[in-house]
DNA sequence: CTTGAGCGG
């Protein structure tokens, strides 16, 4: 047989109707030259009435010589012969459980039809939200006001939470820790003068002490960034602004329903000077495909 | 067009 009579035994030639899309599983490893096209196509004989099938194929061995490989298989009988003795033995075991009512081999796996609803616990209008509104005993009590609301910052009771405290923006003076824990009694006496009494941080000097300078927290150095592209996220903003100095917070407004960016955000700097430099450099700066607007933010309304 | 969500002893 001359070499010029050989056909290429590729799968592509056997399936001309298939498109020329490459399937990664069929990709050849491309180390070395692919000489397989020099070999005769594999020849399949049978299976005959006894289930005997022969495959004759040619390959190059490691030395680069052409070798002929003949594989003879007996289809059904071989399949059975492959089963181990233990596997054959297991076939005679009595069925149990639900399988008792099944045909032999009919079904090994049951398909569950149980419906499982997934919901975001905090989504507006979710069941979790509804039950909270309807059944929360605390919200009913809250109508009377003054229930258990003791501000940690100023120690006042019944008025506001810590986050709403009028003093919350005032930095407490660094002071020694007083090791007696707060009780309802001592908390009520928070503004008192007795020794060893717990005094809430906001009340330890500063807030009520005359002559003491009260430092504002860095909420002041809040920079508003608008005209952000849709896919700008907080890490991106941080990357952009951190070159000007320590950033204490980044925030990108996101539509709660769609998860899309609303195109603006805030960056807070530890130092006012850094914020100022960022504004000067970045306002009008081209970012992604848009021109940023960077300005001082006006304080958020509650 | 365009200034923030959410938590709780």
TrEMBL record:
The keyword Transmembrane helix does not apply. Signal peptide: none annotated. It is found in: Cytoplasm. Residues 221-299 form the RRM domain. Keywords: Cytoplasm, Initiation factor, Protein biosynthesis, RNA-binding. Residues 206-222 have a biased composition (Basic and acidic residues). The keyword RNA-binding applies. It holds the Pfam family RRM_1. Residues 1-28, 178-222 are annotated as: Disordered. GO terms for biological process: formation of cytoplasmic translation initiation complex. GO terms for cellular component: eukaryotic 43S preinitiation complex; eukaryotic 48S preinitiation complex; eukaryotic translation initiation factor 3 complex. Gene3D superfamilies: 3.30.70.330. Residues 183-194 have a biased composition (Low complexity). Its main location: cytoplasm. One of its GO terms (molecular function) is translation initiation factor activity. It comes from the Eukaryota. Component of the eukaryotic translation initiation factor 3 (eIF-3) complex. RNA-binding component of the eukaryotic translation initiation factor 3 (eIF-3) complex, which is involved in protein synthesis of a specialized repertoire of mRNAs and, together with other initiation factors, stimulates binding of mRNA and methionyl-tRNAi to the 40S ribosome. The eIF-3 complex specifically targets and initiates translation of a subset of mRNAs involved in cell proliferation. This subunit can bind 18S rRNA. Belongs to the eIF-3 subunit G family. This is Eukaryotic translation initiation factor 3 subunit G.
């Amino acid at each position: 047989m001359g070499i010029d009579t050989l056909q290429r035994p590729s799968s592509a030639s056997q399936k001309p109707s298939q498109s020329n899309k490459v399937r990664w599983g069929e990709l050849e490893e491309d180390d070395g030259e692919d000489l397989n096209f020099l070999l005769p196509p594999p020849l399949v004989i049978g299976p005959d009435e006894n289930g005997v099938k022969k495959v004759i194929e040619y390959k190059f061995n490691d030395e680069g010589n052409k070798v002929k490989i003949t594989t003879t298989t007996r289809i059904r009988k071989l399949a059975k012969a492959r089963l181990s003795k233990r596997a054959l033995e297991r076939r005679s075991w009595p069925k149990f459980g639900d399988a008792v009512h099944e045909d032999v081999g009919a079904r090994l796996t049951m398909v569950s039809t149980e419906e499982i609803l997934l919901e975001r616990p905090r989504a507006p209008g979710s069941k979790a939200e509804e039950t909270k509104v309807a059944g929360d005993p605390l919200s009913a009590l809250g109508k009377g006001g003054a229930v258990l609301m003791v501000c940690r910052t100023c120690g006042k009771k019944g008025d506001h939470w810590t986050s709403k405290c009028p003093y919350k923006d005032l930095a407490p003076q660094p002071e020694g820790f007083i090791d007696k824990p707060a009780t309802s009694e001592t908390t009520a006496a928070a503004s008192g003068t007795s020794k060893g009494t717990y005094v809430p941080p906001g009340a330890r000097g500063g807030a009520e002490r005359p002559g003491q300078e009260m430092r504002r927290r860095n909420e002041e150095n809040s920079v508003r960034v608008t005209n952000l592209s849709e896919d700008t996220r907080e890490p991106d903003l941080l990357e952009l602004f951190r070159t000007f100095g320590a950033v204490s917070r980044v925030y990108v407004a996101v539509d709660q329903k769609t998860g899309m960016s609303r195109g603006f955000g805030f960056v807070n700097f530890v130092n006012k000077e850094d914020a100022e430099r960022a504004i000067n450099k970045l306002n009008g700066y081209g970012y992604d495909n848009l021109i940023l607007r960077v300005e001082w933010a006006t304080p958020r309304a509650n």
